[in-house]
Amino acid sequence: MLTLYDYLPSQNAWKVRVLLGLLGIVYETRQVSIFEGESHTDAFLKLNPAGAVPVLGLEDGEAIAESNAILVYLAEGTLYLPANRYLRARVMQWLFFEQYYVEPVIGSLRFWTLTGRLERNKAFAPGKREAGIRALAALERSLQDTPFLVSGSLTVADIAVYAYSHRAEDCGFPLADYPAVGAWIDRVSETIGEGYPVHPYSDDPHSAA
Ligand SMILES: N[C@@H](CCC(=O)N[C@@H](CS)C(=O)NCC(=O)O)C(=O)O
Questions:
Q1: Domain GST C-terminal: where (predicted)?
Q2: Ligand 1: does its nearest atom lie under 6 Å from the Cβ of 67?
Q3: Is the CB of 102 inside a 6 Å radius of any atom of ligand 1?
Q4: Which of 41, 117, 163, 179 could be 112's S-S partner, Cβ–Cβ 3.0 to 4.6 Å?
Q5: Would you place residue 59 in the very low, low, confident or very high pLDDT band (cuts 50, 70, 90)?
Q6: Which residues are 64's β-sheet partners?
Q7: What pLDDT sits at residue 125?
Q8: Which architecture does CATH list for 2-76?
């Protein structure tokens, strides 16, 4: 059975939970208490040298880290990852976009905001805010005439980009300024369905600054 090394408030791990659920894959979960250093033990660093969740443990003992790499692995051969060369490259375009313009930008600002780390990162916050506006504007332009980021149906590109961008208001980005993004958020949310809650950092007493 597959094993997901997880941390509930992580939206990177959330992406993987969603895809596993949509694909109906039964898996085991190991919760990793990242604020208590569990992702930096020797054993965990063998699974992911970067010391972060999510990690997917495979049946043969191998492991895959990086949320979007895990999505691609799981989605191979399914409707969530097109086989067509061009469409597949477009999915990759959004997966890389997410890791450069969304996760380290909106994801970091959100993390600092929700865990009381904004003040200590105040030197970086304006740059992140500017980059977040750029990311949301890029999404707004891209979603004018298409229901999903690539092709007419949900792919791993939508799951990845949605993970942090749909929570952009948690760190002060007004989504009302981005109507096409708002409509896409509703569409993705409806398509993935219920059962994938966003867990607040406040559930973890160790997450506070
Ligand atoms: N690029 C990675 C980022 C993973 C990441 O930053 N995970 C966070 C939780 S959201 C983590 O485990 N942090 C613990 C640490 O860095 O010590 C991915 O997409 O999986």
A1: 84-209
A2: yes
A3: no
A4: 117
A5: very high
A6: 56
A7: 96
A8: 3-Layer(aba) Sandwich (3.40)
